[in-house]
Design brief:
By secondary structure, this protein is mainly beta. The chain has 2 helices and 5 strands. It has one domain.
């Protein structure tokens, strides 16, 4: 009985919360070594974009929080031209990158107010 009472009194001293959410992102990718304008002027194609989707869970105890996230990223690039007709003599490439991220954030909230 005494241990149970100590557990509940210790738990009442902490302000705990758990939140969750989604992460969505869209991006534009640029290549510094390729001149997109020159490729397009010669009848080629260069396009690239990326998107990401994921979620997070934030667990807070008083001033401190721990936030693990899981995010999936996909980047797609299309680089193409007709073979043998221009200076860019490479055909067409569809390049796709897949990436999974698992960042673990630790934080301290300075604006915390105990409402109890």
């Amino acid at each position: 009985m005494a241990l149970t009472g100590l557990f509940y009194s210790a738990q009442a001293q902490y302000d705990t919360e758990v939140d969750w959410g989604l992460r969505l992102k869209h991006g534009i990718v640029r290549f510094s070594d390729l001149d997109a304008g020159e490729i397009k002027d010669q009848g080629g194609e260069l396009s690239s974009s990326s998107w990401a989707v994921g979620g997070f869970l934030q667990m807070r105890v008083n001033h401190f929080y721990f936030q693990p996230e899981l995010v999936y990223n996909r980047t797609t690039t299309v680089l193409g031209n007709v073979l043998g007709t221009t200076d860019y003599n490479y055909g067409e490439y569809d390049i796709i990158f897949h990436q999974a991220e698992l960042p673990l954030l630790l934080g301290y909230r300075t604006g915390y107010e105990n409402s109890a």
